[in-house]
Amino acid sequence: MKASLFFLVAAAFCLSAVRGESHPLTDIPAPLEGVQTVFWLPEYPEKQFPAGSLVEAVVGVHNNANNPLNVTAIIGSLNNAQAFHQFYQNFSYQPQQAVVRPGEEASLSYYFMPDESFPPREFQVALTVFYNTPAGSFASTFFNETIDIVEVPPLIDVQGIFLLAALLALLAAAVYGAKSGLEWYGILKPKKASRKSEVKKRTVAAGEENEWLKGTNFNQGVKKAPKSKAPVKAAPEVTPLAPEPTPVVAKKTK
Ligand SMILES: *[C@@H]1O[C@H](CO)[C@@H](O)[C@H](O)[C@H]1NC(C)=O
Ligand SMILES: *[C@@H]1O[C@H](CO)[C@@H](O)[C@H](O)[C@H]1NC(C)=O
Ligand SMILES: *[C@@H]1O[C@H](CO)[C@@H](O)[C@H](O)[C@H]1NC(C)=O
To answer: How far is the CA of 101 from the centre of ligand 2 (A)?
Structure first.
């Protein structure tokens, strides 16, 4: 299902490539000698992007040429890792306005979002910064590497929960062991009777408090949390988990 959607998208791109007008990535100008670039992927340094997530790429442009550079735009694409000429997705053309004088450098952010229909596997992503000087138009491809599209990580980390449960069990065992040891040596006196009545009282109190919640499934199996500082809310806030809207960030570093 996902794979077929993916091929549809790919086919659509190929079709428009046949018909389309000149795309900025069709004839990329050469880089200007003396211009060096570096890049960072602040959030995904491992180059593993969940499909459908917004990725920020930062390019550092260092101008060792003799003329000031006018950085005009950044654009990129996602391609077949084995056959670069196959374009699966062209990322948005993002205009830039930065002048980098000789000897200076600037860092600029570019945001792209690999389509959520892509299956988890290897692709190639190429990102190119375009700039002008009085001598003409130039471009530097600052990123052109194999990346991994990965599955969106699950909201609940099952492994983590098991690990936490195991740790808690260990801790409980240790506490119980220590307590038994102390009792054995007579340092701590077991006080079973008093504890039982106390627990009884407490559950009664909690039951009364939660009387108004009957009929909802809010308090099923929920014990009163003794340490919670937040006031008990009047209505259970059980909204269905909506995906967070992806922020479209328009940040630009100059
Ligand atoms: C994507 O970019 C390539 C390379 O410039 C171009 O051939 C193709 O037409 C573009 N596709 C779309 C859908 O704009
Ligand atoms: C670069 O930008 C400056 C100011 O924005 C402008 O005056 C100049 O003509 C531009 N140069 C080129 C080559 O685009
Ligand atoms: C990216 O690298 C591939 C080789 O892996 C090359 O064919 C392609 O032209 C490069 N793309 C750009 C935009 O430089």
So the answer is: 11
CB atoms within 10 A of CB 42: 10
Give the chain's end-to-end CA distance (angstroms, integer).
43
Ligand 1 pocket test, candidate residues 23, 112, 124, 130, most atoms within 8 A of CB: 23
Considering the entire predicted model, what is its pTM? Answer: 0.60
| C-alpha gyration radius of the chain | 30
**Whether the Cβ atoms of residue 253 and residue 106 lie closer than 8 Å to each other:** yes
How far is the C-alpha of 57 from the C-alpha of 59, rounded, in Å?
A: 7
What does the block give as tokens for 33?
A: 């000698």
Q: What is the pLDDT of residues 17-36, one digit of tens each?
A: 444 458 999 999 999 999 99
Ligand 2: residues with CB < 6 A are: 70, 99, 132-134
User: Can you read off the two tokens belonging to residue 203?
Assistant: 């559950």
Is residue 13 packed enough to be buried (19+ CB in 10 Å), middle (13-18) or exposed (0-12)?
A: middle
